[in-house]
Amino acid sequence: MKPATIAFVLLFSLLAVSSTAEKFDFFYLVQQWPGSFCDTRQGCCFPDTGKPAADFGIHGMWPNYANCRRGNHHQEEDLAGTMLGEDVAAVFSAAGAVGRRGKCWPEYCDGGNALTPWAIRDLVKSLDQNWPTLSCKGGGRSFEFWSYEWKKHGTCSNLEQHDYFARALALKAAHNLTAILAGAGIVPSDTETYSLSSVSDAIAQATGHTANLECNRDADGNAQLFQVYQCVDKEGKQLIDCPLSMATKCGGDSIKLPVF
């Protein structure tokens, strides 16, 4: 067997082994305020189960890297090119063995692992209440939303389908953001504004951990609290302090929490 062929077999074996478990550092549990989702120029659509409650709803639970791995990705490609030749390395990268790690998070890790209704049959009622779709693209079918989140993020979580959704639901229930903010006097209002720091402090004091906040803009251009990114350990069980900061997109410290 030629040295190049041996090198190819060895590298393929190493990558096959490493791909059995995705290597990431933490999850983002992302929850969105439905009033802010809907109070934009594009609006929203309610799911086929009806208008959701005025409560933060799960957007997703996303594996993430504490540091962007883009540099490592290019190093791996260079190594493959050196060992195998550029043509073989290009095929390897196109197959996804290296390429999906070129971002700061893993995604679409197992295209053949589609979400099945049977796997989450006992969670559907809770998912309808806590993980509804508000997008107008899916025709109000929340299962399509859950399927997309599983396909893009869940397949990279090292969790089974049921565990992925059940752990996200358990975290939301254990740290109810709507109740936490209400306890700090931060309640939905069409006229009141709040400081971003007061929202951040309320969440940190109630949960014991910092979170990242994201704003969007209402139809008049006012900043409103849109999404809360809580950071979770790699098992999807416990909140942790967020190892990364992110831009709030708020443009200032004054925000709204619109009525839904």
Automatic annotation (TrEMBL):
**Gene3D superfamilies xref list:** Ribonuclease T2-like
Active site annotation, chain numbering: H59, E149, H153
Q: Which UniProt keywords apply?
A: Disulfide bond, Signal
Q: Which residues form the signal peptide?
A: 1-21
Pfam families in the record, alphabetically? Answer: Ribonuclease_T2
Organism superkingdom: Eukaryota
- Family (UniProt): Belongs to the RNase T2 family.
State the PANTHER family in the record.
OS07G0630400 PROTEIN, RIBONUCLEASE T2
Name by which UniProt lists this protein: Uncharacterized protein
Organism, by scientific name, is Urochloa decumbens
Q: What is the lineage of its organism?
A: Eukaryota, Viridiplantae, Streptophyta, Embryophyta, Tracheophyta
